[in-house]
Specification:
By secondary structure, this protein is α/β, with parallel strands linked by helices. It is 42% helix and 15% strand. The protein has eight helices and seven strands. It is globular, with a radius of gyration of 17 Å. The protein binds 2-hydroxyethylsulfonic acid.
């Protein structure tokens, strides 16, 4: 078995996942990066000396194949997920809801369940799950996403109790607005609509979250940062509340 500390990052082909992989590699981890877009992953893996593996967290066989080849896991970053659509419940698109449930909730469950034995075996495992401020309460037109993020958060938070006594720490990071491909995916590729979300504010960047992950991973084994909520200064605690420059 390899002795180098090993990290696994899902949804690593862009945004927070990619930035987290770079941060953890710089901290000395061998990083297994997983996502569907293998070309981008391979470029990243080359740059950071990691391993690129195709992964679709909504597909049981893909998760099995992915987790089977990873020999050791010290850190797991559950980052795969996202939003699709922004619509009132009266106009809910069931396909969007299903996608959000599959990626955020069941995706996190599948990967975490499969890697738990290796995280425990490491003697000092860490699971970082990237939820969202959408895991903290409702917002109008966002129920598909808030429902999925609450579900994902519950998988993660429940494990904290279930793993008490085992050498695994759990940290939930709940970010507000981070400028990544998040809004592009939410608006089904509409770049103009996506750009408007960050118009007139200074949003968080993927690196801001990656630095927090690096900090969490570098704490000593007895320190468990349970939950970290992080927003841009321009975003208030009330959903949808932003201070925008005109
Ligand atoms: C996304 C959070 O604040 O951009 O997870 O809706 S926000």
């Amino acid at each position: 078995m390899t002795t180098q500390r090993t990290a696994v990052v899902t949804g690593a082909s862009s945004g927070i996942g990619e930035a987290a992989a770079r941060t953890l590699a710089a901290a000395g981890y061998h990083v297994f990066v997983g996502a569907r877009r293998l070309d981008r992953l391979e470029k990243l893996a080359d740059e950071i000396g990691g391993t690129a593996l195709e992964l679709d967290v909504t597909d049981e066989d893909s998760v099995d194949a992915f987790t089977a080849v990873i020999p050791r896991v010290d850190v797991l970053v559950n980052n795969a997920g996202g939003a699709k659509g922004l619509a009132p419940i009266a106009e809910a698109d069931l396909d969007d809801w299903q996608w959000m449930w599959e990626t955020n909730v069941l995706g996190t469950l599948r990967i975490t369940k499969a890697l738990l034995p290796k995280l425990i075996e490491s003697g000092d495992g860490l699971i970082v799950t990237i939820t969202s401020v959408a895991a903290l309460g409702p917002y109008d037109n966002g129920a598909g996403y808030t429902a999925a993020k609450h579900g994902q958060a519950m998988v993660h938070r429940t494990l904290r109790g279930e793993l008490l006594g085992k050498p695994v720490r759990l940290t939930e990071i709940a970010p507000g607005a981070v400028e990544t491909e998040f809004s592009l995916v939410r608006f089904h590729g509409d770049a103009e609509k996506a750009a408007k979300v960050y118009d007139g504010i200074d949003p968080l960047l993927a690196d801001d979250i990656a630095e927090i992950i690096g900090f969490v991973a570098s704490r000593p084994p007895h320190v468990n940062l349970d939950q970290i909520i992080v927003r841009p200064r321009d975003q208030g605690a009330v959903p949808g509340q932003f201070s925008r420059r005109s």
